[in-house]
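Standup notes, protein team

Yesterday: finished cleaning the Huso huso set.
Today: Prostaglandin E synthase structure.
Blockers: none.

Input for Prostaglandin E synthase:
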Amino acid sequence: MALALDLNNEVFSSFLFYATLLLLKMYAVAILTGQLRLRRKAFANPEDSLRHGGLKFCREDADVERCRRLHHNDMECIYPFLFIGALYCMLDPSPSIARLHFRIFFLARLVHTVAYLFALKAPTRSLAYTVGQIPCFSMAFKIVVNVTSYW
């Protein structure tokens, strides 16, 4: 039995669009991290450093660590968004309100990424993080309000 997605559902299609962009952004950060490791010769594992010049390259690099922290923060924020957003789509929200939630989260994560990678002045990164959490909490609140009637 094949799973068919209803791409005629405007809310779900919008969610898929922004979710896919976020995942592509995460892949880009992962690739950047790997490329920085190679360029800076800063490997996390001895077997990798041996392949690229010796154990002396089994070390940390500030820029590689910055990318790793960004990627970790993405996982902490984007994965919950994917779960909450999927549940939110099931509540049949207004398409324009849903799109606004998804777009705000996506743009906030994009600004957060730029702020992290280019070490922009504080509080740019923390503001982007906070703005991104607002639609997540809003969607989560709507989910909780909708399901409490079944308790």
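Follow-up from PR in the comments: Helices lie at 10-40, 46-51, 62-89, 95-117, 124-148.
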